[in-house]
Amino acid sequence: RLKRTLPVRGPQAPTLSELMRWYCLNTNTHGCRRIVVSRGRLRRLLWIVLTLSAVGLIIWQCAELLMNYYSASVSVTVQFQKLPFPAVTICNINPYKYSAMKEYLYELDKETKKALETFYGFSEGKSKVRRSVDDWNSTGSDFFEQIPLLKVEDFSRTATELHSGQKRKIEGSVFHKDSSIVNSGDSNDIIGFQLCDANNSSECALYTFSSGVNAIQEWYKLHYMNIMAQIPLEIKEKLSYSAEDLLLTCFFDGLSCDKRHFTRFHHPLHGNCYTFNSGESGTILSTSTGGSEYGLQVVLYIDEADYNPFLVTSTGAKIMVHDQNEYPFIEDIGTEIETAAATSIGMHFTQSRKLSKPYSDCTETGADIPVENLYNKSYSLQICLHSCFQKAMVESCGCAQYAQPLPAGAEYCNYKKNPNWMYCYYRLHEKFVKEQLGCQQICKDACSFKEWALTTSIAQWPSVVSEDWMLRVLSWDKGQKLNKKLNKTDLANLMVFYKDLNERFISENPANTLVILLSNFGGQLGLWMSCSVVCVIEIVEVFFIDSLSIVLRRQWQRAKKWWSGRQQGRAAQAMASDVERQGHENPACIDEDLPTFTTALRLPLPQDSPLPRTPPPNYSTLRLETAFTEQLPDTLELGQH
């Protein structure tokens, strides 16, 4: 009885209001206590506003701390040490000797010259090169007629064909202008070509260009790749430049070097390229001194006279400085050097490393990227993009694009086996540029990479006073392979060196650790609420555990009350049904007093039963019976009297 009359407080309080009042009176956070003990509505309202403001500031500051937890700080470290020399890849801008390629390009050059003569009135003397007996161009002429150069008049659908010179209406549902440059000149005629789907002639795309030079070069490269895709690799390596052809002199770190220090690899667009210090032999050269005298110095023989006049329009070489494990994408980021000049390239070496997930969206090795690496080199974003496009090319067009490595089981596109590949390639490339192919979304940056910042300077070489004797000596060094004296426009001087031996290492480090995060949390709680970790545990216990237990306990009591009421209702219904069957068990008759005649008449009667009658009285109960078998002696006299 005493336990029931005493008030229950603390975690066992019956209501949330009593629990909150007990918490505010006993907590170590001062604001909550002041709300309860303050007198006056104004003072209590002020403490409520201040306490809620402090809670809001704590939540905001802690959210900022959590959001900035995965941020990174960048640190730059500079070291002075002996540096490994990078790989230097050198390619001639002209991929193949034109004198050796003429027999394969006979039909293509013929059509190109005819286009120049038809559209621009340019004529040349007849070529003395006979057509090769090999059947490399057996289907070329027919395909030139299917994809001819066109002169489109005033951006209309009327075009003049190269072969027949007749005008025809350009058919097709697609009139492509998105990837072309609108003609800005005064002429109303533009040059281009039309590609159509071989399976559906109504699906066409017209590619136009602002300049006839661009149109002819693009059209020429399109057919050129088709021809080169049909030539075996062994033959193409012989048609390109050898190390003896390209390299005249070589020095590294003040010592002489030769072709043994260069590794050849065949590039689809640049022919034979040569990499200095490739590391394939297991040894990587290094340098201990900065300056042009301690780097790589080479003199290159360009042979401008043997250039393809329609494929390339500039003279010189392309070089790329890269890591030994990196593939040289010389067509994308190569540096061009010109002839008759000395090109000095100074380098600064920087090594960078980014933090992977969850700090940034980069990949360590590329193993988590669902794209096969076709280049057999360490992962890079360019390798992923090119491999992804090549995979999409094989899946969509049934063949591989010539400028990229072959996937397993695929072959390069050509007219004979894949007559529809040009239209498919251009459509696919358009989607790739517009980022509709999905490659840009799949591929990620590498977390670690090496970079050489290049500074280029050019000087005239050789000088006027030294030109005569230098060209004579170089011609003599070239030996009997040349029957002519070298010209300075056939030569290029290249120097690649470290400007200094400062190695910069840029790395990302976590800006926050778990210890710092907890310390910041504690500072915010102590600043705004004079609260500690114990207070936080107390808040969790009261506001979550105890409050939840009170709510659940009240719900449980309600459920028990509802269930007991339901059970009593069922029992009452059962008793009522039993009374209907047996009248004498009716609750109306169950009383402390005996039933009367009137109550008996009120009982319900069973169906198909005779009316009950009042039973006759038991008269035997009215008889007087003695409890003794014999009469007592003292009563005899009374009986006699």
Automatic annotation (TrEMBL):
Its main location: membrane. It is a multi-pass membrane protein. Pfam families: ASC. It catalyses: Na(+)(in) = Na(+)(out). GO terms for molecular function: ligand-gated sodium channel activity. The chain crosses the membrane at residues 45-70. It is found in: Apical cell membrane. Keywords: Cell membrane, Disulfide bond, Ion channel, Ion transport, Membrane, Sodium, Sodium channel, Sodium transport, Transmembrane, Transmembrane helix, Transport. GO terms for cellular component: apical plasma membrane; sodium channel complex. PROSITE patterns: ASC (PS01206). It comes from the Eukaryota. Belongs to the amiloride-sensitive sodium channel (TC 1.A.6) family. SCNN1G subfamily. This is SCNNG protein. It comes from Nesospiza acunhae. The lineage of its organism: Eukaryota, Metazoa, Chordata, Craniata, Vertebrata. The gene is Scnn1g.
